[in-house]
Specification:
- The structure is a homodimer of 433-residue chains.
- Chain A is of the alpha/beta class and 433 residues long.
- Chain A is built from 11 helices and 27 strands.
- In chain A, α1 packs parallel to α9 and α4 runs antiparallel to α5.
- The longest helix of chain A has 19 residues.
- Chain A starts with a strand and ends in a 19-residue tail after the last helix.
- The relative contact order of chain A is 0.15.
- The C terminus of chain A is likely disordered.
- At the A-B interface, β5, β10, α4 and α11 of A face β5, β10, α4 and α11 of B.
Chain lengths: 433, 433
């Protein structure tokens, strides 16, 4: 075992996990390092935030996924930095790992566009903890409204703002619309949850800016039917615990909306670790800090370091970088693994990475979605069934994840949401002592 | 509505929730107040701690359970005190609720027998948050062992101590045995999870002290088969992050066991709120602070205040107080509701509360349990099937909880555990900013 090629993979997201799996039969020792012990199925995280699924249902323990892969070990740890010249990764806890090939798939983090102080009032949907915190916030808002002292106060508790109308923002808004109008319909005595106002704010001229225009229009209509107000061409200038201040279009004056619940579904940026990696390898980055990679996903001058997933800046077409979505990460991770395997078998030339775009889809409420599959556009129930089918195929790879679909089926029939718990934040009597 | 009899119920556990449900057709306005928005199915909490179930699967939102009960409202809030003479409850947030009848079902909290500093190193299994923290601790211990620098360190990480061999302690020990020997079997490369040492420490002379002796012996044998070391007549004198110090029997010297994971499954005591209630009503209490109630579960001199569940001290037979288990709470809550309903209908005399003891059961690992049903004793698979059946009947009352059984069936067949996530405690990159 000692002399085998050592592959270190940083990050167990879509890119890292797929790279590891593709190295199953490689003549190499693979070490997958992640800060968390699980792979997170990020596209379903909004369902945790809205109480449909439990965290355990959108995640799979990395060890468990890779348990039968004998050449691979999983380590819980956080990378501090990469010493690219000495070919080693140093962890925060001091652990040092030599590598012959390195795949960096550490992903992105939420960007508040320089307004990090907004994070407190407007959590984003990036981690399991944040999803749980958002669920807490949403459910608590209805509780507070039920006990509000004045109609104004109740109204502020029943106003929900989602900033950013990409797929995540739309999915959240749609789910919120359903919670207010269906799930909680009979649950309160002093308020009507159906009177909740859900506002989706978008800086650009349309929702789902990355999708074809007809699907944007469809999506807006579908989410409107669920009772969501869509505000486009709106620039948020301030967020605090009591609401949102924003400017419309080219207007010079601002408006204020009282809302106790604001959720951030805006952009992403690079992590401090990735910025440091770029500096140390003198790699070029784009505005958001993504590392510009060669056509084989390696960093210029470092043919043994691959970047896959959200962190890679790679132009699919000239001037058109690939988006930070699961499909790009999966294919990038698999490509890096293939190159490493090929090199071990003595190959020298590899075709450049080519992203095979299977399309995009976003779910809008119950049994409704928009989809762009190989250029064909679908919306409504048919798009939702396709979404369900594609996610089914992916998720059942992980044992027991099939239950998610039983759960969905059940909730679809009953309008219920099984995971509506408000937990955490010092509510625990037994800790008071 | 204004002139109707007002019933306030404090606590949405087994006693409070059952009382509320039994008041469905009463000519009264019912207000159920709880600090949490959910009813917790406490007997299954150990399955959250051991990664079999998600928190959402052992809890049901109180609003959702009571949504169709038009005379009842649910409020999220924490009682600060009861002004028994003015007949009102004051919440911590300042809310004031007048009552005509009050049911106090606020339960108990973990007791460290005066050593509250042990809590840090040895969490107990009382809340969803603690169950998640214990899961975190257990899974992290295997991760740390995998990366340990020395065999001694690895051994300390692979040593798990459970203090207290009641039903919870046994259930935890059995589940831990299975995790080590089955679930994680193939997951690590540097350690053998099966070599983990699980020690169940008990102060008394046998496990399941409240059960008949033959079932204690059976249970000890079953848990031993799962690789658990049972230490009886052991007195714990110190717990810290590195292990447990204890004394055997009448020995004067202490022994030390290096163990990075210690879980407290010891006793319970009363809450500060309940102590205050006893003082204000000049009610007698037992040693652990439970309030001594009349034969109709009311506090002496306060016929409008009922105590149900863990907080009530009620002698089933002379000198034999009823134990703090779900069945007692359910029947106590239902009885209090019945008396209130009866009084509203003009009845004056009520038979004293009588606990109908259906028996006890404890699960020890997969498909194995001990049970004492109406005095008949069972163990092994048959006891487990009975346990499953009884819990099934109870849980399916709550919509969608039936999925728990699909999940169990699946995990029974595959030995997997779906909810093996290590979450929380600052592992979240996106919060670093």
């Amino acid at each position: 075992m000692e002399q085998r090629h050592r592959v270190v993979i940083l990050g167990g997201g879509f890119a890292g996990l797929n790279a590891a799996q593709k190295l199953k039969r490689a003549n190499a020792n693979v070490t997958l390092i992640d800060r968390r012990n699980f792979h997170l199925f990020q596209p379903l995280l909004y369902q945790v935030a809205t109480g449909s699924l439990s965290p355990g249902e959108v995640a799979a323990p990395l060890r468990s996924v890779l348990r039968r892969q004998k050449n691979t070990e999983v380590l819980l740890g956080e990378a501090d930095h990469v010493d690219a010249d000495a070919k080693r990764v140093v962890l925060r806890d001091g652990g040092v790992f030599q590598y012959d090939s390195l795949i960096v798939a550490t992903g992105s983090q939420t960007s508040y566009y320089g307004n990090d102080e907004w994070r407190e009032a407007a959590p984003s949907l990036k981690s399991v903890e944040e999803a749980t915190a958002i669920r807490h916030k949403i459910l608590l808002a209805f509780e507070r409204a039920e006990r509000a002292d004045s109609p104004e106060e109740a109204k502020a508790w029943l106003t929900f703002v989602i900033v950013g109308a990409g797929a995540t923002g739309l999915e959240l808004a749609g789910a919120l619309g359903e919670i207010a109008r269906e799930t909680l319909k009979h649950d309160f005595r002093h308020i009507d949850p159906g009177a909740a106002r859900i506002v989706l704010m978008e800086g650009g001229p349309r929702v789902l800016g990355a999708y074809p225009e007809d699907l944007s229009a469809k999506a807006e209509k579908l989410v409107w039917r669920l009772g969501v107000d869509v505000e486009k061409n709106v620039m948020v200038t301030e967020i605090d615990q009591d609401g949102v201040t924003y400017r419309r279009g080219n207007s010079t004056s601002t408006e204020r909306l009282a809302a106790k619940t604001v959720i951030w579904a805006g952009g992403v940026t690079t992590t401090p670790f990735a910025r440091q990696l770029a500096e140390r390898t003198r790699a070029a980055t784009d505005r958001s800090g993504r590392i510009k990679v060669n056509s084989d996903l390696t960093i210029p001058n470092y043919p043994d370091i691959f970047i896959a997933g959200d962190l890679a800046y790679f132009e699919g077409k000239p001037g058109k970088p690939l988006p930070g979505v699961a499909q790009v990460a999966i294919q990038g991770g698999a490509y890096a693994a293939k190159v490493i395997k090929g090199r071990l078998e003595g190959k020298k030339d590899f075709p450049p990475f080519h992203y095979f775009d299977k399309g995009d889809m976003a779910v809008i409420g119950r049994a409704s979605a928009v989809a762009d599959i190989f250029g064909f556009h679908f919306s409504g129930l048919i798009a939702w069934l396709m979404w369900l089918f594609i996610h089914l195929i992916y998720i059942v790879q992980f044992q027991s994840r099939v239950l998610v679909f039983v759960q969905w089926g059940f909730e679809y029939l009953t309008f219920s949401r099984g995971a509506r718990l408000i937990t955490g934040e010092g509510n625990d009597k037994s800790r008071e002592s």
